[in-house]
Amino acid sequence: MTGLAALHFLRPMDGRPVAYQYDPPPGVPQRTGDYDPQPVVIRDARPLAAGLSLDGEGFALLDRPSVFADFGDQDAIRSVYYREVEGLIAGATGAALVIAFDHNIRSAARAAGDAGIRPPVERTHNDFTARSGPDRAARELRARGLDADRLLESRFAIVNLWRPIGRPVEKSPLALCDARSIRAEDLIPSDLVYRDRVGETYSLAFDAAQRWYYFPRLTPAEAILIKGYDSEESGVARFAAHSAFDDPASPRAAPERQSIEVRALVLWLDAGAAH
């Protein structure tokens, strides 16, 4: 079904939004930048699923059950589930090399008591920017002893594989913005401050022309691919903004959503870079 729901967009401000990923110095706020709710039409993407693509809208639906079940074991996720994700993304994109490099498990019910579990993000955003996408790609390649300068001469992207855990999503589903409806000026660079570095994401400014979609009752046998960055600068989606949202159609007693997202570096490699 299609309906109105509130999504949260960055309010116009002076300077750059900043979010500390650790306790900031005394007197420094954890996060700057205010987000305002805006009523947005969010369309059911299921009738369109067969025609959606990473290079078109910036997101796509996979009907691929996972053979992995131990999402409580962080080491097993990295050693086993990452390999499955790499295979799924390679099959969907035709890439020559896929490297899964990090993940988040999200559950509002577990976030307060379980280290490493985060709540859904209810702010419109894109995980990487025109600067941080290449920076992260190079860092991941160099950490593995690979020649980043050579490999990144070919087209590369960062893709997120997002999957429910345990049960269908009834609460806090994921809204996805058609990348073709996002203007360059809608993407606001925002700093993520870590102890050893400063990362960068895009916050999103509201624009009535943006087109938003979601997949109702997404099941653990399904997964969403989301384009976070693409080095190709024309003709393809580069940034597919997204956000959790409060679905008015969710049952009042719906259980909290549990999900896992794995980010992966995707390299197509031309003939010169492959050797």
Question: Can you tell me about this structure?
Answer:
The protein is 15% helix and 33% strand. The relative contact order is 0.26.
Q: What is the topological layout?
A:
Blueprint: E1 3-10, E2 18-20, E3 35-44, E4 59-62, H1 74-93, E5 97-107, H2 108-111, E6 117-118, E7 125-126, H3 132-143, H4 148-151, E8 156-164, E9 174-177, E10 187-193, E11 198-204, E12 212-214, E13 223-230, E14 242-244, E15 258-267
Parallel strand pairs: 2-10, 3-12, 5-6
Antiparallel strand pairs: 1-3, 4-13, 5-15, 7-11, 8-13, 8-15, 9-12, 9-14, 10-11
Task: Write down the overall geometry.
Answer: globular
* CATH level 3 topology: Jelly Rolls
What's the architecture in CATH terms?
Sandwich
Strand content: 25-35%
Q: Quick gist of this model?
A:
The protein is of the alpha+beta class and 275 residues long. It is built from four helices and 15 strands.
Features:
15% helix, 33% strand, alpha+beta, Jelly Rolls, 5-stranded mixed beta sheet, 275 residues, 6-stranded mixed beta sheet, 4 helices
